Amino acid sequence: MHPVFRNNAGRVGYVAVWMVLAGLLAALMRGPGQLSWNEALSLAAPLCVFYAFVCLASWYVCRAFPPGPTSATRLVSQHLGMAILACALWIGLARLLALPMNLGTRLDAAIPHLVAVGLLLYLLSVALHYVLLAMEASREAALQARDAELRALKSQINPHFLFNCLNSISALTTTDPAKARDMCVRLSDFLRNTLGLGERASIAWRDELELARTYLEVERVRFGARLQVEMIVEDACAECQVPPLVLQPLIENAIKHGIASMVDGGIVRLESRVQGGNLEVSVENDYDPEAPSPRRSGLGLRNVRNRLDTRFGGTASLRTGSQNNRFRAEMVFPCNKAN
Amino acid sequence: MLKAIIVDDEELARQVLRELLGTAGGVQIVAECANGFEAVKAIGEHRPDVLFLDIQMPKLDGFEVLELIDPPVAVIFVTAYDQYAMKAFDAHAVDYLLKPFSTERLGKALERARALLTEPDAHPFQAGDLAASARPPGQALERVVVKDGTKVHIIPIAKLDYVEAQDDYIALRSEKKSYLKQQTISSIETQLDPQRFVRIHRSYIVNLERIARIEPYTKDSRVAVLQDGSQLPVSRSGHTKLKELLGDSV
Predict the structure, then answer these.
(1) pLDDT band at residue B27 under the 50/70/90 scheme
(2) What does the buried/exposed string (b/e) look like for B179-214 if buried means 16 or more CB atoms within 10 Å of the residue's CB?
(3) Counting CB atoms within 10 angstroms of each CB, which of A146, A176, B4, B191 has the fewest?
C-alpha cells in the first residue's frame, strides 16, 4: 500500500496539499488565459483531483525501478516517459473540461504553463517517492541489524556449551575442588561479559579477544590436552571497534566441528592484524573430514556474515575454506577507532 | 552386579559417571571408551549389560555405535542437550541422563535397566532398531557404517553404488567392494535420501547418479546398467519410480 494511505494524518495531509496546489494552479492560469476565478478554479480542481491519483501511481514505478540496480539512463528515460504520458493526459483532460466552458483560445494561452506544471509535479512526486523509499529502506536496515544482533546474542549462550561446562564442574567438585571453583569463576566472567554486550553497538577488539580467551579457557577444562590454542595478535588491532561477539561464532565452530571431532584433538589458531586500514582476522582449526557431522546448521557463520553486511556493507567479508584437514575462516572489515 | 561400559569423549564426563556409579553401587565398569571405534570393540569383547552412551563423539557418533553392535544391551544415553533425540529416547532407550545429573537420577536409570534385564522375554534393546528410530526424523543418512570382523568401514553416501538384499542382510556396493550388514533393505530405504536412492526392485536400491542406461530385458522387465557395467533388475513399479525422477527418457 502507498505510504500516504497508511494512516489518517497521511491521507488528510495529502488532500490538504492538493487543495493548496489547486489554488495555486488556478492563480497561475488566470493571468495568461484572462480567466475568471470561477473558470480557473473549475478547471484546476478536477485537474488536481486527477493528478493527485497519477502522482500516487508513480510510487509503484519508483518501487519497481530502485536507483541502485537500475542504470541512470534507464531511470531517466523511464520517468521522463511516464512524466510526458501523465502530462499529455492532464492536458487532454484540461481541454475536455474546457469544451463546455466556451473558453475558445483563452485556454491555449495557459497551456504552456499547464505543461510545465504537469511535468514538474509528476517529477517532483517521483523525487519525493525516492526519498520515502530511502527512508523505508534505512528503517528496514536498522530493524534487520537489530534482529541480527539479537539473534547473535541469543544463539550466543549455546545450551550445549553451558550444560557441558556444568557437567565438568560437577566432575571436578570431588577430584579437584580448586579447579571447579576456578571454572565457576571463568564461566561467570564469560556469561557476565556477554550479557552486558546487548546494549553496545561496538566494542574494542581487545575486549572481544578477551571474551574469546575466557571462552577458550573454559573449553580447555572440558577438552583438556585435546584443545591447544595459539593466538597471534598485533598490538595495532587492540583499539579497532567491532560488533560485539563477531568473533565468538568462529571460535565456537572451531571447537564444535574441529576439536570435538578429533580423538587426539588439535590446534585452534587465531591471528589478527591491521592491514591497509582493515582489521584482518583468521581462525584456523584441525578437523577430521571423516567425522560424523554434528547437525551443521551453519547459522553461526550466516549470522556473522549478516552482521558484517549490515554494519559495513560491501567493505567487509567473511571467507571460509579448508585445506589439508585444516579449516580456515577469514574475516576482513574496516578498523574504525573510537573517536 | 551389572557390567557397564562408559562411552564419552570427555575425560571429565567419564570421571563424573565413574564416581557416581561407585556411589550408586552394584555396577562394575568393565571399560571406558573415548570414541566410537573403541566403544564398538569394547562392547564386542566385554558384552556389557548396560551402556552409557554419549551422542556427539569423534569417529562414530552414538547412533552409529548402536548400529554396529550385536549383543542386546540396555542403552542409557548421556547427553548435554538434544531436543530431537530426546523424543526418540522416550520410546526406545532404557533411559537418558541429561548432563549434569545427580546420583539419585542415575540410580533411577539403573533401576530401570535392572528391571528390563531381569524380565525374561523382554527384548527392548535390540541395538539396530534403536539406532534407526533414535535418529532425528527427516534427516537422511550421510554415511553408512559397517562392521567387518573387528574393522569398521565408513561408506559416505556419495560413494554408495547400490544396495542388494540378501536374506536378513544387505550388501552395500561401493568402489568395487561389497560390505555385508545386518539390516533389512526396507529399513535402509527409509534412511536414504529418496531423491538420490530409489528402490528399483524388491531386492535392490540404486544410487541414481550411477545409472548409465535402462535396457529392456524380457517382455515386461528391464535392467539398469550402471556406469561400472553391472546390471540390476528393474521391476515394473521400480521403472515407474525411475520415470518420475528421471523423466520419460528412461
Answers:
(1) very high
(2) bebebebeebbebbeeeebbbbbebbbbbeebbeeb
(3) A146
